[in-house]
Here is the input.
Amino acid sequence: MLNHIVNLLKGQVTGRVESGFPERVLNLCAEYGVAFWDLTWESPVSFTFTLTRRDWKRLRKLSRRLDCDMTAVCWRGAPFFLGRMRRRAVLCMGLAACLALLLWGSFFIWDFQIDGNETVSDQEILRALEKCGVGFGAFGFAVDSFELRNYVLLEIPELSYIAVNVRGCRAYVQVREAIPAPELVDKRQPGNTVAAKDALVTAIQPWDGEKQVLPGTMVKRGQLLIAGVVQNDFGGVRYLRGMGRVYGRTWYELKCQVPLTVQEKTFTGDTALRRALLIGKKRINLYFNSSIPGDTYDKISSWEKWRLPGGIPLPVTAVTETLRGYTLTERERTKAEALRLADIVLTARLEGYMEEGTVLRRSLSCQEADGTLLVTLSAECEEQIGKLVEMPVEMQEDIPKE
Here is the structure.
């Protein structure tokens, strides 16, 4: 591979030799050390071979005393290319300008690659970097990764580490997300655990305090479950945190209405295509009319970043916008479709009501009236119903020191 590149830089010629005694040419090459390769016999009196441009000229001079005909079939390499460009001054100037622009553009950042983030989005990290001056088109050599780290970590507390390494026109951003610290519990602050909703208690686990109900008890919302004020052995009062977990069986009845008539889009086949270029942060529209023809058009946009061979990004992005016309038509929704849609909505609402729990039983019922379907979800669940409520009580001397 390396020899092939070197030969292309020197320039190589594929020649044909025709002679009554063609082996004399090969003996001449061996005598004067002329290197050649890709020897192919076309007939007993002719063959083709490849050698460098300098050796080709040298062999032509040496073979004048031989009765042979040497013809150049193909020329390849840098000297021949530059020779063809010698009379094309404008093309050479344009090529030089392109190379200069590529060299100048390699000093700036045109692409970002972010690794290590799971919960923090790429857009949030890019916005924080742009606030610190490291955005699209920033000068790569001016990026101070150590100083940048301090600003970005203050901007995004969910990150514990960030490093920005610029290689060419691409910035590699490596982040590590912070592990959330557990919530600190101040046991010196007294409190009670009360019921967050009506339920049938199935299990109670007091961590600190005294339980006030037993499993199998029906409790109302706000009822005391674990008391933080208990009597000590000397007839006094102790103030505790009153923490714990209380599990209970709860019942829900959720309703929603689903219309049986729905408007759907029917595409008419009327389409329009618009193209634009994003050079850096500047958009250049390649069309004249920038407004959408009407309200009943969908716009689908796609972006394609231009890259050089080898994946080197360019500061140019091709934008294609497709406008598709449609009309709104009414359609009767079937009862099964409406019931399925209501099931999805009611299930999501039920999961939002439960912080920690499971659904034991559930059932759906429906009733059709006035062009709508009234769907009712009845569910029986088991969930954690305890809620800690701090007491505004002054700390006293008999609070135990822990």
Remarks:
- The mean pLDDT is 84.
- The radius of gyration is 40 Å.
- Residues 335-353 form the longest helix (19 residues).
